[in-house]
């Protein structure tokens, strides 16, 4: 799945399949300006910053079990969001510091380091990632991903895929080749 925020005409947090199909709103009320998003892939939670409402909130992948992690004026200056173990990490653009927020007790907020111009944050861990299972977009023996001549996108599951073409091309009737 692909998760994203939108604060155009109607602010929301959404998800869709990797090919853009099955677009679903998972948060569409009591939300104004969601500017950053982080996923807990193990427990299947979506965290987001709302700088207008000055809050950090969380829901599960279906938009249920919504909770406010922390709220207050300090949220207005936060940029980027990452989750790792028991903490959320973000950048305070006002104090130019990396903050660590306990995701279970939002009152435990610590400044970890100072940076001059950070706007985003990512957490990488040293442990190797688990091997991914085979999927529909794996390269075939002749080298094309999932049998698609240009772009292969996972669809509703790791076993399904959708072929797409680069700009200026159209998908052929076989659903795989681009002309």
TrEMBL record:
Task: List, in alphabetical order, the GO biological process terms annotated in this UniProt record.
Answer: canonical Wnt signaling pathway
Question: Highest taxon of the source?
Answer: Eukaryota
The portions of this protein that span the membrane are: none
A GO term for molecular function? Wnt-protein binding
Q: What is the lineage of its organism?
A: Eukaryota, Metazoa, Chordata, Craniata, Vertebrata
Q: LDL-receptor class B repeat ranges?
A: 1-43, 44-87
Q: What is this protein called?
A: LRP1B protein
Record InterPro entries: 6-blade_b-propeller_TolB-like, Cueball_EGF_LRP_Nidogen, LDLR_classB_rpt
Record's SMART domains?
A: LY
Question: Looking at the UniProt record for this protein, which Gene Ontology cellular component terms does it annotate, in alphabetical order?
Answer: plasma membrane
Write down the Gene3D superfamilies for this protein, in alphabetical order: TolB, C-terminal domain (2.120.10.30)
């Amino acid at each position: 799945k692909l998760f994203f925020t939108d604060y155009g005409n109607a602010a929301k947090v959404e998800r869709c399949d990797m090919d853009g199909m099955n677009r679903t709103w998972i948060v569409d009320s009591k939300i104004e300006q969601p500017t950053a998003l982080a996923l807990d892939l193990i427990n299947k939670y979506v965290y987001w910053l709302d700088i207008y409402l000055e809050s950090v909130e969380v829901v599960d992948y279906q938009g249920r079990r919504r909770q406010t992690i922390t709220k207050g004026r300090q949220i207005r200056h936060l940029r980027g969001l990452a989750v790792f173990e028991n903490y959320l990490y973000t950048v305070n653009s006002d104090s130019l510091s990396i903050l660590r927020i306990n995701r279970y007790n939002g009152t435990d907020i610590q400044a970890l380091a100072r940076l001059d111009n950070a706007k985003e944050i990512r957490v990488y861990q040293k442990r190797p990632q688990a091997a991914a299972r085979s999927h529909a977009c794996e390269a075939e023996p002749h080298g094309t991903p999932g049998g698609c001549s240009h772009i292969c996108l996972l669809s509703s599951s790791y076993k399904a895929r959708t072929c797409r073409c680069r700009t200026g091309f159209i998908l052929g009737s076989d659903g795989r080749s681009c002309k």
